[in-house]
Amino acid sequence: KSNYLSAFTEADFERYCENIVKNSWVYTAADFSSGNSAYPMGSAYKAHTILYAMGTTQHTHGSQNIKNYANAQILLGNMGRAGGGVNALRGIGNVQGSTDMGLLKHLLPGYQGPRGNDDYTTYMGKLFGNSTLSAGLQQRGFINMTYAFFSASPLSAVCGSTPSNSAASGLFENWPKLVGYDHRTMFVQMSSANPTYTTASRPKIKALVAWGQNPAQTEGNAGVIRKGIEDVELLVVVDMFASETASAVPRKNYRTINVGGVSANISTILLPAASFAEKCGTYTNSARVLQWKWQVAPPKGNSKTDMEILAMLAYQLTQNNALSVNSWNTLWRDPYFTYHDAAGNTTAVNSPFTDWNNTHYQADMARTSGATGNRGIGYAEKVYQEFTSPRTSGGTLWIYEEAWANAPSFGYASASVPSALVVGVPGVVNSTYNRSQCRSTDDPTSAGIYLNWGWAWLFNRRVFYNRGFMGSYDNKDLVVTPDKVAQLFAHASTSVRRYANTYRTNATLSDSSTGFPAHREPHETPREDLKATYGTVGNPSLVSAGAASAYPYILTTIRYVDHYQGGPMSRNVPYLVELTPEPILEINSYDAGNEGIADGDQVYVRTIRSKYAAETLGISDPYLTSAGWVGPFRARIIGTKSKQRVAQGCIAIPFHWGSAGYNRGPAANLLTNDAQDKNTQMPETKSCLCEITKTP
After folding, report:
1. Bigger pLDDT: 448 vs 84
2. Do 468 and 458 form a contact (C-beta atoms < 8 A)?
3. pTM of whole model > 0.70?
4. What is the C-alpha separation between 139 and 154, in angstroms, rounded?
5. Which of 95, 168, 324, 559 could staple 90 via S-S, CB 3.0–4.6 A?
6. Which of the residue ranges 117-126, 463-472, 659-668, 687-696 would you say has the lowest mean pLDDT?
C-alpha cells in the first residue's frame, strides 16, 4: 500500500507548465529580430484560460492554488484578454450572485468588508473612489446603501445627487464591526460537547435558521456539525424537502407551541420553500453576467418564495421588538404592496403581512413587466431596481451600477439598446432582460463576447482588462507582471484610479504568503517526505489527524452527473434515482486485489473523524456503525488496468447521499476532513486518509 503509483508526478507537472508557456503569449526569436509590429506579443499567440472547480479549492492551500493560477496568467499575458483569465466552474447557478450580495461572513453587499475599528473617513478611504469620499463609484454606492438600510427617510430626501458625508458618518455607526463566526466555528459554538475550539464558554449560539442549506449532510467532519445542530435550542429549516438537517438529526431540545389552538411539541420548524422555477429574479453567473429569470409556475401547496418568507420573518421580529429596521415602513410600503392589473390600474393590498393569500399580492410578488406586458413592476423587480439604478439616482449596489438605466452607457455598440431587445416598461430598461446574441462592434476578433446578453458588472464589461482604457478591446502593449498593479476595475471618469492597488493594500491573504507560494501538503498525507519538505498551511481539523499507518488510503470526494450537490432535490426525482440509484466507491484494481474486493462488492470506509463521531460524540446515523464505519458503498473499478480512473492508493466517493429523502445512502462528509484554508475557511474535503473493509 505504501508503494502506490502517483497519479500526477512532478515530471507531469513540469510538462504541463511547459505546454502552457508554449501555447500562450510568448516572444519568439524571429519577433525579437524583426520587430514584427503585427504580432507585438509574439507570433505564437494562443489565448489560454484556466478553468477550475472544487478539486482546486477544497484544500487548506486552496487560495494558494488560485493565486498561483492568477500569477501564471499574469506572467503569460493571459489576464484581461478574451479567452484568457482564471475562471471558476460553479456547482450552483447563483454562487456569484450570493457573493455579490454579501452572504459571506466577511463581506457586506458589493464586496465591502466590515468596518472593524475604522471611523467613517478611514473606511471610505479604503473603497474605490476619490479623495472627496462621496463621488467615487464604490464610495457613493456604499453611502446610498447606508442610507437605504439605516435612514428613516427615503434616500432621495436625504442625499439627492450630492450626498452628505456628515449624515452618512452618523449612519455608518449602524454597520457591524464583526460579522460572526466562520462556518465551522458557528456549529461548534452550538454545543458544549464538541472539541474545544475557543476558550470562551459554550454554547453561545442558541438558535439556527438553515436557509436553503443542509449542513448536517454537506459539511466536512459532519459528526461535529451534527452535534451542534442536535444541541441548539431552536432549529428552523427553510427548504423544499425534509432534508437531513430537518429530519435526520435527532433533536434533544423540544418546544411547546400552539398550532390552531392545539398544543404541540416540536424539535424543528420546517418552512416549505419554493423551487427556482417558482421564483423570479436575477442570477449572476461565473462571468458576472446578470440574467433575469421569470417565474414558470406559482409555488405549490403552502410553500412560499424566499422573499415572502423573509418579509414575514422580518415583520414578526419587528413586531416582537427583536429587530430594529429604521426604514421598514419606507422600504415595504406602497408601491411595493400595490397590485397593478393588466390595464395599469392599481389596487392597494389590505395587509401584506397578514393577508398572504391575497391573490393580488401573490401575483405582484412574482410579476415582472417583461413577462406579461406593460402592467407594472412586481416586488422582486422593484427591489432589484433599487440595487441597480445609477448611483446619482440612489442605486445601492455599486457593482451593478446602471444595470437599470434608460440607456446603459458602457459596453454597448451604440448609445442605446435596440428597441427589439427592450422588454419592459417603456422608457425604462432592465438590462438583464436582454437575450441578444449580436456581437459588439468593439469586438474586432469576433471572440464571442455577447455584450447585449444579460448585463455584466462593472459597466457591462465582459472582460476585466489589464489596463484602464475604456475604449480599447484588447490591449497588447503591456503585460502586467506581479510587480505591477493589475487595473481590474476602471473608474467611470477619465481619471483612472488603480483600485487593485487599494484593494491589495487593504485586503491580504491571512497566511501572509507573497509571490509564488510553494507547494503545501494536506494535513493528512501519506507523503511524510513532502510534508517535511514543504509543510502544511491553514487551520487543523477539530479532530487530531489520522496516521498513514492506521489509515493507509487517500480519500477524495467526487460528483455524479445525475445528482446535484448534497442531493436533497435530485434524490427526490425518481428518474434521476433510477439513473444513479446508489453511491459508488471507485477503487484501483491493484488495491481491490490486495483487499480482496471484487467489482460490485459492498465496501465500508472509516476515518479518524467518523470514528470520533460514533464513539465519542454518539452520532446516530443508519449508515454509521458504532465503530465508525460508513457504508455500504458499491465498489467499482473503472478503466483498463494500465489506465484507470483512480490511482493506486486512492479511493473516490460521491457526496450526494444522506439519510433522508426518497433515495438514501451513506454520507461522505461523515468521513471528510474539516481542516481549513486560513483565508477562506474552506474545508479540506478533497484529501484525507482512510481505511476500507468489506466486513465492518
Report:
1. 84
2. no
3. yes
4. 19
5. 95
6. 463-472
Tell me how far CA of residue 117 lies from CA of 59, 177, 626, in angstroms. 31, 7, 48
Helix (H, G, I), strand (E, B) or coil at 606: strand
Look at residues 439, 457, 402 and name the one whose alpha carbon lies nearest to residue 284. 457
Angle, alpha carbons 101-103-108 (nearest 5°):
65
Cell numbers for 480: 502586467
Pairing of strands 269-272, 207-211: unpaired
DSSP letters for 33-73: HHT-TT-TT-TT-----EEE-HHHHSSTTHHHHHHHHHHHH
pLDDT 10s digits, 206-246:
889 999 899 999 999 999 999 999 888 889 999 999 999 99
pLDDT, tens only, 305-335: 887 787 777 767 766 777 665 544 444 433 3
Q: Which of 177, 176, 168 is nearest to 120 (CA)?
A: 168
Q: 147-164 burial by CB neighbour count: b if 16+ within 10 A, else e?
A: bbbbbeeebeebbeeebe
Alpha-carbon distance 455 to 649, whole Å? 47
Q: First-to-last CA distance in the chain?
A: 20
Whether the CA torsion 128, 133, 134, 135 is positive or negative: it is negative
Please check whether residue 185 is in contact with residue 197, taking contact to mean a CB–CB distance below 8 angstroms.
yes
Q: What is the DSSP string of 518-533?
A: PP---SS-S-HHHHHH
CA atoms of 294 and 281, how far apart (whole Å): 7
- The span from the CA of 434 to the CA of 443, in Å, is 18
What CA–CA distance (Å, rounded) separates 348 from 91? Answer: 41
Give the list of residues 6+ apart from residue 72 with CB closer than 8 angstroms, or none.
17, 20, 50
**Buried/exposed 399-435: b ≥16 CB within 10 Å, e otherwise:** bbbbbbbeebebbbeeeebeeebbbbbeeebbbbbbe
Q: Cβ distance 254 to 286 under 8 Å? A: no
